[in-house]
Amino acid sequence: MGTRTLWRTRAKLAVAATALCSGAAAAVISSSEDPATALKLCSTVPVRLYRNSVTAASVAFDYEYSLWGLPEGSTERSRVKHEVHLRSARKLQELCFKNGGIYIKLGQHIGQLEYLVPEEYVQTMRESMLNKCPVSSYDQVCEVFKKELGETPDKIFNEFDPVPIASASLAQVHVARTRDGQKVAVKVQHTHMTDTAAADHATVELLVNTLHWLFPSFDYRWLVDEMRESLPKELDFLLEAKNSVKVLDNFRKLSPHIANYVYAPKVYWNVSTSKLLTMEFIDGAQVNDVKTIKKLGIRTDEVAKLVSQAFAEMMFKHGFVHCDPHAANLLVRPLPSGKRGLLGKREPQLILLDHGLYKELDFATRFNYASLWKALIFADANAIKENSIKLGAGEDLYALFAGILTMRPWNRVIDPAADHLVIKGTDGDRSELQMYASQYFSQISELLRRLPRVILLMLKTNDCLRSVTNALLQGSSPETFLIIGKVSSKAVIEAKLSQNKSFFCWLSVWFEELCLEARLFSIQIFLWFLQMRKALSWST
């Protein structure tokens, strides 16, 4: 019975893919002004749709056939399920690499959804999707240069390395030297992106909608909507360049106390276009490269604090947020103007790369999001509920929303202990998270469908930052949460003052800030006590 069901599923997928292939081809031929592009799309889109349908059917059949007859909760079922998860994750990985572009972006996003998808998928995608993306040939790079600047790279630069130092889903980066000898990084968009982006989006939409039709609890349609809005912005490198300027300007104006500790490469506007971006080349360690960071004389806990503070300032004060802070987009180097401390340690500077995906938070969203994080840090259950509802979680799913943001169960979220949100990164912690993900899958899917897209991007950003912190500290730290609590609380206070400048409001806010500082100080003293006790236990 199970086998017949899955064969029917495969047949449905095949019929849907065939129908869309015919429709997509006809639409392209009728609307395209470029016959070569039309021919390319008509040859690639059906192939990708076929891959999608075969992969989806293969994965669905593997789960049904392999788990058929195995008792729920048995050791044998858990073992087989792990093997199926791993096989399916590799099939999905292969599909993403073969199709490229948008599919790799999709794979990267899946690699951050540890609260929703099995660990095998998360690990497989994280290990491959950031640094092992397909590479465009040098001839294809020259093709982009000729279209954008009218010349090949060797005519524009003194030196241009034809082998890229990095390749991502939408572009790859080459090292070059300008005519005046400046070392630069040149980001070149993959040639197929412009031609196939719209068609790729249609095929991804078909895959997601088909899976939702077959398995109603699998509802990722919100992700397709987000990709439809964000992809055109990510493909415009001039917009990316403007974002890099704006984010630094925000730090200088709104967060001057850490402005020197956050940097973005300078843009060379005369050799940049919507598909080519030439930037200052910066030597630095990738933020998750703990070994190299330590060799630079920088403490990893200081890097974790800087990352937490920089993004807290963006979210809660600036309202202009870098929404793709995975490890490949964050570099660390010693602060150029800094000196070594007494123990030879150096202060870190955070380098922000890839500024294609930013989100602006309006005043109400920024205020409510800051208020929510303040409530989470200080375990204020009523405020958590109030602000979660304001952000769209609803009265029935606010506790789940808090759990996804913190990756902690509700009883830990509202625990008044100073370290109640700390994740130790142990196997026990991971098993607990996976158990909750499996248990509340349908509710999580409903929550993601319900939340505004701007909050979904904040969740994605939060997931990336958690992954970075975990790599730096092998878990999380009370200090990073303390920083988030401090920045979010001060942002709430500043927002209140900006809306009401009366003396009584000022007095009320002043008293609130006084209480906040006292509370933060008491938490800091407690954390220092814990650190001292740990240090003494190590010494004995």
From TrEMBL:
**Domain ABC1 atypical kinase-like: from-to ranges:** 129-387
Q: Which Pfam families match?
A: ABC1
Q: Which InterPro entries match?
A: ABC1_dom, ADCK1_dom, Kinase-like_dom_sf, Mito_struct-func_regulator
Gene Ontology annotations for the cellular component aspect, listed alphabetically: mitochondrial inner membrane
Identify the stretch annotated as signal peptide in this record. 1-26
GO terms under biological process = lipid homeostasis; mitochondrion organization
User: Which superkingdom does the taxonomy of this entry point to?
Assistant: Eukaryota
Going by the UniProt record, its keywords in alphabetical order are: Signal
Q: Its family?
A: Belongs to the protein kinase superfamily. ADCK protein kinase family.
Q: What is this protein called?
A: ABC1 atypical kinase-like domain-containing protein
